[in-house]
Amino acid sequence: MTVIDEEGYRSRLVKAAAALRSLEAEVERLTRQQSEPVAVIGMGCRFPGGADDPESFWTLLSDGVDAVSERPARATDDAARTGAFLSAVDGFDAAFFGISPREAAALDPQHRLLLEVAWEALEDAGVVAERLTGSRTGVFVGMSGNDYLLLSARSGAMGGYAGTGTAHCFGAGRLSYLLGLRGPSLAVDTACSSSLVAIHLAIRSLRTGESSLALAGGVNLVLDESVTQIVADLQALSPDGRCRAFDARANGFVRGEGCGIVVLKRLSDALADGDRVLAVLRGSSMNSDGRSAGLTAPNPSAQKDMLRQAFADARVRPDDIGYVETHGTGTALGDPIEIEALTEVFGEREPDSGGCVLGAVKTNIGHLEAAAGIAGLIKAVLALRNAQIPRNLHFSALNPRISLTGTPFVIPKTAVAWPRSDRPRIAGVSSFGMSGTNAHVVVAEAPSPEQVPPRAGPVVHPVSARSPAALTELASAHASVLERGNDPHDIAYTAGVRRDHHEWRTAVVGESGAELAGKLRAFARDGATAARAAAPPALTYVFSGQGSQWIGMGRQLRSSEPVFAAVLGQCDELIAKNASFSLLAELAAPPDRSRLQRTEIAQPALFAFQVALAALLSSWGIRPDAVIGHSVGEIAAAHVAGALSLAEAIRIVVSRGRIMARAAGSGTMVAVELAHDEVAALLSATDSSVAVAAINDDNSVVLSGAVDELHTVLGPLQRQGVRCRRLPVDYAFHSPSMAPLAVELAQELGTVEAGRTACPLYSTARADRIAGKELTGEYWADNVRHPVRFAEAVRAAGRDGQRLFLEIAPHSVLAGHVANCLGASAAIPTLRRERPEMLSLLNAVADLYTAGYPVDFGGLYPDRRTVVSLPHYPWQRKRHWLDTPEPPREQVAVEPVHWLAELTGLPDGEREAAIESAVRADAATVLQLSSPSDVPVDGKFMELGMDSLMTVQLRHELAARTGLALPSTLAFDHPTPRAITRYLLKMLAEREEDES
């Protein structure tokens, strides 16, 4: 072999070795993927006995409650006297899900339950539904019954929504549609094992990466007794209405109702995302009985195979299993076969391996059929979390056809403690379908949660809902949680970061659970601070001028907020390059050595404080859509708007402060509560150099000038009772005396490097919006010399639609003026002099949130916090049923024949109001709402529950009313009553023009 051949051979060997390592890594990755554990991160349920959430379900189980009762009035036949039923299944909060009353009446209550319980499960998981839009979230739902379809057919109510309202596939599909989910979406019908099969399929989908998150579970309702009669004819129902699993008296099961949903995520993803892990699904299996003693007869061989496959998939041994939640129907045939299969698979245990408890949730809540498996899984998860296995009910003596001798199995007559130990606690859950499909899931305890250090200080606790009544209920429910003594930071974190935020809102601020609870109780009592946020409002920052600074400002924020401290540090370095003082030293100086009242210190210090505060707010997701600056505050406004770099802004503010400091002793300034026109008239009648320095609102100006001249001018006003307040300054800023200093400033600044703003900047020197290029040296000279036209700038912003203002200042001096200018109270201060800074700032955040601003609460918690259980959404249910009469509607008296002619003669405003009223009336008719007032003028038809069929009907109604040729896409192209009104107005105007 030549040297060249040897080198080529070596090269090929190196490549082959690299390829082999790559293949080995890929095999290892695929192996891990196929066996990756899946985390249960959230649960929701509605089970008999008032178990409307996991906590109350655990109470039912641990208290040994038998939820079987007499059948409700909705059942009419005599197939069975008893069952485990849910209450008020005819109620549904259709408005929450944007479903019209018309469609809701045709919607299978099983589908309605799925929507509500799935939402509750997401809340329990701390998963924000809004963020799931477009995600690969899968929906796997077990459903088997068609009772509502039978009722619909029998009542003759088979309308256009009967198909989409009752077919199983639409139960899953509607959930995916409403939440915008792009993962798999399917209904599973394997009879009694449906929901556990759905769990199995969800695990597989997560492991392959097909789904990134999964909602899985099942639902069952007993609405039509003809189905119960069929089951009774099979001799499967207990004559005395008790499910006695494994007992000698076992004589059948009891039908039950319920819904359960779990939220699943790959364990590695759940841990990385900081989710609360309730339990871990280690593996699962599914198979069929094949040929057995009969179509509905269980097959012990198939059950054995199912168990072995599940344990292999989970990589556990039977000895590792400490608890099996059995299928346990309490039937003479089923119970012995299930124990037979378990006995053969588990065999005899090692002496130190402990026993295995056999649970049967059906003894508590009956057989939930398609939802039976999910009920068993949720029970197993709760047993792991509460370190206790609840007792089985109705067990006194073992079925003589069952022998537990030589087995590890124990049937619990009392609760069994199941504490953590050096061995992981693992359970198995079985579910068998009448058609032969079997499923088993292996569930293990969650890994020990990461310890989160306690945190001190105030928190902002937001609460929101989709109606005032729901908001009041939820506020009281949150107060109850806070009163239990849990960490208020974890509770506020979950409420802010891990919950959806709706349009009706409130928020409270406090340092303890008791304080927060007291404020929520007060809100629930009077609702005084509730607000409806129809759409996120645009936010305008208002930067105050000199005079809002105070000794000690920024110290608390600098010590507690790294973002604030970092920006102050940047400003300190840049100021040091342009001035002979240290910003940080000046801010830290004690009162007897403080120089914050000196202009050359005050202006750069105020600028730095405002920029740091804006950066801190930005880290919380609060950013301005527009800015206004008052006097020196314009420099911070220009920087935050993006027109000035930090270095250039500091160069300007340091020069401005140093030059303006030479005005000390030139006079003083006085705030006068009088209209600008009246003050101007007064000044024009006097021979005085006193000038208007600022126009803050319609009845507030600031005068500037020599002390004696001001005294002469103000004397008559004070005698007339006009309030005049002298400011604690010895200079006459924004007056003619500043002209020489303004010229000097322009010369010193020279060329100013300014660019276009990233958001609107409303100039108080020009009283209008500017683009940024105008910020030359001459502009900053005008900013010193000319009046601050604050009121005009605010009104200009108001004309552009700005309605929410946040004052960026160490002490609020402008919020009241903003409110006076716009006749509104949407002016929010950030801080107050000598008050706790974080507390004040969080109160501002709470006010912003209540006003509808989309606060990013995650920014308030840079360190990961613990997700905790909070009350689920308080549904505002109304009855929706096949026999629900249409609500009486307000009649809008409009004569179709002469309607257009009558409109022609109306003034423009009245014409628009008449058309708008007609559009809302026809929309209410189509949606089956009781009043046109239930249709908001700017409410989107789709959000009100109007689908494509209804939009066509609305178009027909309006075409018949108007006689106009309207497009079939009318409600899609013009999706609100106001939009259709404007469209119709335009058509009428064109028609009148053509006729003329």
Descriptive notes:
- With 996 residues, the chain is of the alpha/beta class.
- Helices cover 42% and strands 15% of the residues.
- It contains 35 helices and 30 strands.
- An eleven-stranded mixed sheet has the order 6-5-7-8-1-9-16-15-10-11-13, with helices on both faces. It has a six-stranded mixed sheet with strand order 27-26-21-20-28-29, with helices on both faces. Strands 23-24-22-25 form a four-stranded antiparallel sheet.
- Strand 10, helix 12 (334-346) and strand 11 form a beta-alpha-beta unit.
- Helix 19 (562-578) packs across helix 23 (646-660) and helix 32 (908-927) packs across helix 35.
- It is globular and about 115 Å long.
- The chain starts with a helix and ends with a helix.
- Mean pLDDT is 91; it is low at 889-897.
